[in-house]
Amino acid sequence: MTNPAWDVLVATCPSRTSLAKIANKWTAMIVIALNDGPLRFGALRETVDGISGKVLTETLRDLERDGILTRTMYNEMPPRVEYELTALGQTLQGPLAALGRWAEEHIELVLRAREDYDQRPDRS
Amino acid sequence: MTNPAWDVLVATCPSRTSLAKIANKWTAMIVIALNDGPLRFGALRETVDGISGKVLTETLRDLERDGILTRTMYNEMPPRVEYELTALGQTLQGPLAALGRWAEEHIELVLRAREDYDQRPDRS
DNA sequence: CCGGATCCGATTCGATACTG
DNA sequence: CAGTATCGAATCGGATCCGG
């Protein structure tokens, strides 16, 4: 099923274009946020704290194009649009959630490493 | 050990700065490339196909600062510099390798999803 | 010749203002 | 409410140059 010739380390390999999109902080946070079920555009913007509307729109479109999530628009007033992970997107949830957890669980060690690094006298 | 208040979805949380660095294609590829042991700068540049010297240098410095890898310089001629994952970096190897594998294993589905999306008539 | 610093164009980012 | 448009600012990234 999987072509063993695919290798993200090869510049021209299509799998790298996919890695480039999923190895992105906004993608990670959006997929993490959608773990508990579909969310509206506004709810996503609140949950993924600090994201701008423009970047949220762009990232959501890219993810929809790649089959990671679906966009469902309801013809209501006021308009309502919901985003939800596809089956494919749910297979991505694990790896990205693991990344998020790693960041939360190891931030203390990272902060300590930064202090050590910044206080090194040898900045030759 | 882990502060439950840390949440990568909160803009001001330090863990997000860490997530922003590890959720990056170059970081992912470098950590993946270092899985089999230390590599020299030049070997890394070949292995992570397509990366420029500048970006490689910057990313390696960031990762060194965060305690993900070590940089060892040998006073030889010609110069030799080796990069190697730390114990902390090895805990990151799993999650990032999983991301790379996801990209390779699901690229076919992603490519098909892109075709479908691009052929949709309703681009209202 | 290797590691990496510099320069500078290209891309991305994000705040604001506006539309259906 | 859910976007789109526009436009500086910031970041990324590649070609090129430099020190040992």
Written description of the protein model:
- The structure is a homodimer of 124-residue chains.
- By secondary structure, chain A is mainly alpha-helical.
- Chain A contains five helices and three strands; from the N terminus they run H-H-E-H-H-E-E-H.
- The first copy, chain A, has a domain at 14-92: Winged helix-like DNA-binding domain superfamily/Winged helix DNA-binding domain (Arc Repressor Mutant, subunit A, Orthogonal Bundle), CATH 1.10.10.
- In chain A, 56% of the residues lie in helices and 11% in strands.
- Chain A has a three-stranded antiparallel sheet.
- In chain A, strand 2 (69-74) and strand 3 (80-85) form a beta hairpin.
- In chain A, helix 2 crosses helix 5.
- The longest helix of chain A has 32 residues, at 87-118.
- The first copy, chain A, is globular.
- The N and C termini of chain A lie far apart (51 Å).
- The mean pLDDT of chain A is 92.
- Chains A and B meet through helix 1, helix 2 and helix 5 of A and helix 1, helix 2 and helix 5 of B.
- The structure holds a DNA duplex (20 and 20 nucleotides).
Which terms summarize this structure?
homodimer; mainly alpha; Arc Repressor Mutant, subunit A; three-stranded antiparallel beta sheet; 11% strand; DNA-binding
